[in-house]
Amino acid sequence: MSLVFGGPAPAMMSPLMRKFVLSTEPVPTIDDINDPIFYGQIKELADAQTAEEACNLLEKSETLHQLMGISKPIRNKQDKEKLIQKMLNFVMIENMKAAYNEFFLGFSKLGVLDAIRERPDLMESVLVAKQQNITARTMRTYFKHICFSEIGSNHHKLEVQRICWLKDFFVEIENVTVNLNHRLEKKDRFLPLANTCINQIKIPCNPNIRRCRQFIADLEMALTGFEVFCDESLVQDEVLL
């Protein structure tokens, strides 16, 4: 819908998926794998220096080996490379065919799929995802709408303070790596809660958190320690972004 009616660029495709859309025969590489388990197993196998080392590594990932039905022995470097390519084809192509077909079926509506194939270079800038550094300005743009309590209330003052701390946190981590260094046994409700479906973050307004540094430490804990942030039980008196 965004493409048809001139909305923001979707930018959700990988280069490999773009090759699928263009009806070419894609050759996946290790860098195309998003699954950390598959990536780790195949990357470790690719880095093996000898056939014996490769066989030993393959035994460790027996589940992956059996799942693909690949049972050829590794005798030399060529055998290893062929096996790795078969693994990549399975993980990135065979295992994803049903999802790709459903995606193409949806894209065929309203002439979008035909337009992509007719103008591949033009559509690449719109559809293919590109890595970019997230800045403090980016975060402020993503979360422009803030649901405060009634102006003048004590809770509103607390929420305003937390939002100021949050903006300071965004600026502070722009050019540094956020480290996971926190007390896991803390019992107060202190972590933010994310809802990625509606692009929402609930920032906790726990009155026991009185210092900006403590608040930022909690954010670091959440943003680096959890893929899904936390559950509802850890959020108390939140302000919505």
Q: Would you kindly provide a brief summary of this structure?
A:
With 241 residues, the chain is mostly helical.
Characterise the protein shown here:
The structure is a single chain. The two termini are 26 Å apart. This protein is mainly α and 241 residues long. It has helices at 15-21, 36-46, 51-60, 62-68, 77-92, 97-107, 112-118, 120-127, 136-142, 154-172, 212-225; strands spanning 193-195, 200-204, 238-240. The longest helix is centred in the last third of the chain and has 19 residues, at 154-172. It contains eleven helices and three strands; from the N terminus they run ααααααααααββαβ.
SSE arrangement, N to C: HHHHHHHHHHEEHE
Question: Helical percent range?
Answer: 40-55%
Largest sheet features: 3 strands, antiparallel
Ends: how far apart? 26 Å
Unreliable stretches? 179-187, 227-241
* Overall 3D form: flat
Going by helix content, strand content and strand pairing, the class is mainly alpha
* Mean pLDDT across all amino acids: 73
Strands side by side in the biggest sheet? 1-2-3
Tell me how many strands there are.
3
Give the radius of gyration: 24 Å
Beta-strand proportion: under 5%
Q: Given the structure, what is the number of helices? A: 11
GO molecular function, one term: ubiquitin-protein transferase activity
InterPro entries: Hect_E3_ubiquitin_ligase
Please describe the structure with a list of short key phrases separated by commas or semicolons.
241 residues, mainly alpha, three-stranded antiparallel beta sheet, 3 strands, 5% strand, flat, disordered C terminus
